[in-house]
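ugh ok so i messed up the first submission bc i forgot one of the chains. this is the corrected input, ALL of the components this time, i swear. 378 residues overall. if the numbers dont match what u have on ur side tell me asap before i send this to the collaborators (the ones from the other lab, u know who)
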Amino acid sequence: MTPWAVSITAAVASFLLLLIVFELIRSRRLRERYALMWLLTGAVLLALSLWRGGLNTIASWFGVTTYPPAILGAVGALFILVVLLHYSTVISRLSDQNTILAQRLALLEQQLREGR
Amino acid sequence: MADVAAAPATPAAQDVLAQLGELKRLAVVPAFNEEASVGRVIDEIRAFDPGFDIVVVDDGSTDRTAGVAADRGAHVLRLPFNLGIGGAVQTGYRYAFERGYDVAAQVDGDGQHDPAQLPKILEPLLAGSADLVVGSRFAGPEAAYRSSATRRVGIRIFARIVSAVVRQRVTDTTSGFRAVNRKGIALFAADYPHDYPEVEATVMSVKHKLRLQEVAVEMRERSGGRSSITALRSVYYMAKVLLAIFVGLFRRYAVPVEEEHR
Ligand SMILES: Nc1nc2c(ncn2[C@@H]2O[C@H](COP(=O)(O)OP(=O)(O)OP(=O)(O)O)[C@@H](O)[C@H]2O)c(=O)[nH]1
Ligand SMILES: [Mg+2]
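and heres the new structure output, hopefully the right one now
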């Protein structure tokens, strides 16, 4: 069974994550679009840390009998991986758009300088 | 195109037209790959009122949308890449703000919004009884707009939530057929939601103390192109918009002042 200290710490940590994400959206430093994955991460981790029996069951599916909280770490890592992959696609799109903007700007400046 | 030439004949429409004469007015037409329909939309707006300036915001289309619009004599803002409907529409509002327009009406480039119905939407603005007027498909007595079952459920849920948040009955939160006065133009030019903006824009306006009014309109089925709303996207749509509304409850909103024209 998961030690209580681990459950409580994990629950507090995931709750803090949810709270911070909320405040970042509220103060408009994080857009809803990019917050959804973080909120899902926080919610799943919070659920798994509070629902101790469930964590045990999931652990036993994977043959983890000695230390169920390992599943907590694995799930957390999986979500972080997905968020990072998502951000890689976002960065790729941003850099494509940035190139287009720079090219357009160069063409525009040339037009202005030479009066077309 | 005989139906396009038919000018609005009802006395109410004539009245609105007479009042409009004094105002600088702009139709904002967002268009993403709408070469099949955008030309007709422009013609229809002209047929309703030739005094309307028309700006087509081409949201990074890969077809001839911008060319078709320019050929019909509309002003065309070509975005260098697809911003999505929110970013596209806000570009139009920025244009309206900088050029000192008094009234801006949004008319979709896909032809679903019938410009002949503009008088209904403009009337409350001209009467000074509203700052933002939204054309609703579901407000009328025989509201008969067809759409898929899941979409109808979503629409109803949003209508409930938005009505509660703005403390006023709202039936069609996702309608893009809307118009604002100078106050609304100033607000939307400064701040407009990004993807799937209609619901949030409505809520935001009321929080900024703009007066919202819905009027019943009829909308048409798509006449060309394709809808942006797919099954998977609608899940994201719901989650994103609900999150935005919820978080919005905890924000503070300034009351905008009406700017002077430059
Ligand atoms: N799909 C899409 N439309 C855009 C975009 N930018 C601007 N638009 C325009 O926004 C308008 C509304 O888009 P629609 O996809 O028709 O959305 P809708 O009217 O809510 O959905 P339907 O009822 O299925 O047509 C159209 O005139 C589009 O051309 C974009 O990035 N994607
Ligand atoms: Mg449409």
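quick check: The interface with chain B takes residues 22, 25-26, 31-33, 35-36, 39, 96-97, 100-101, 104 of chain A (CB under 8 Å). that seems consistent at least. Residues 40 and 79 of chain A are 9 Å apart (CA to CA).
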